Amino acid sequence: MTWRRAICFAALVCSVAAIPVDNNVEGEPEVECGPNSITVNFNTRNPFEGHVYVKGLYDQAGCRSDEGGRQVAGIELPFDSCNTARTRSLNPKGVFVSTTVVISFHPQFVTKVDRAYRIQCFYMESDKTVSTQIEVSDLTTAFQTQVVPMPVCKYEILDGGPSGQPIQFATIGQQVYHKWTCDSETTDTFCAVVHSCTVDDGNGDTVQILNEEGCALDKFLLNNLEYPTDLMAGQEAHVYKYADRSQLFYQCQISITIKDPGSECARPTCSEPQGFGAVKQAGAGGAAPAAAAAPAPAPAAAAAPKAAAATIAQAAPAAAPAVAAASPAAAVPRANLAQLRLLRKKRSFGENEGILDVRVEINTLDIIEGANPTAPEAAALVSEEESRRRIPSSNGICLTPIGFASFLGIGTVVATALSATIFYVARPTSHKH
């Protein structure tokens, strides 16, 4: 009976230890932007017994507040201590003062009920002059901003259609669906346009299949994209590959713009693509443009760049496509044409636009007569194709010299044994009288 009570007591102790701290922050923090310091106060549900400190400076007493026993916890941070950051702003003109404050409800440890807050005060510069020529000091203004994060985009190749599963291995001619999606924390805020798509074999042989406006160049490779939603694009296609190459690396750019309230997202106006219009951007005789570098071999979600202008300056392709001769700009010299494209892109890209790079990889198999490999079999075949070219099977039997000699030896022994057996059975038997 004693051991049963001990087990129950131990179970009760474990259960109690797993209960979180019975306290949390009520409402939003109260921030006071003073002339020389920032004060942050938190209203708690129960009396506070923890710490309020600047993130990363818990061991510095001046950057930590240990007041307890009340339902209010706070800390005052001078501008010249505790790693308080100051950033100058030109438009609007002023200074941002920011820091990160952590409120911890446990006296010794950080638990799941604790919270960290990014505190930011904006001090606007304003020079005012009165008739007595006395300069008035700057006004202290609390500037509250809400930062909307940029969408996170990805590029996938799905099996069959829009609802298929992402694939990494496929055969030539297999129907797939190219899908570009962007996830945003807000709704009806952003627009996405896919453009500047290239495909390469990982060795610098790059072909452009979507131009800078987002229009398809070769109907046999990829048709003009469809946009089911503001942040989604896709199109069906069939798998193809380079000669003697099994891997294909796709890279595209996605332009993210802010959507005007009550309006629709602008989409590319494209004509029907012609056949064999893809633009080869790199080859044995020329170098690829700077924006068409070989992509990484794994898909990854793209983050918003600091400045979109870094990816805008894309040079004209090294080799002009055959269909370019039919365009009105064909008579313009190549250097002038590149400048016109750059100016057009600068006019179309606003200050509120960001460009994301997305990539995806697929391994492609040759057509094999009478074969329909599954995904694991396709992966094994791709690995074998990387080491040597596959030879079509025939109806004959191939033997190595050692195997052929072994076959002859075994055949000779079997023939000798068979002859001896027949001779022994067929010999006349002698009868004794």
TrEMBL record:
GO molecular function: structural constituent of cuticle
Superkingdom of origin organism: Eukaryota
Keywords tagged on the record: Cell membrane, Cuticle, Membrane, Signal, Transmembrane, Transmembrane helix
Topology within the bilayer: Single-pass type I membrane protein
Keyword Ligase: no
Signal peptide: 1-18
Record InterPro entries: CUT_C, CUT_N, Cuticlin, ZP_dom
Residue runs in coiled coils: none
Residue ranges annotated for the ZP domain, each copy included: 32-277
Protein name per UniProt: ZP domain-containing protein
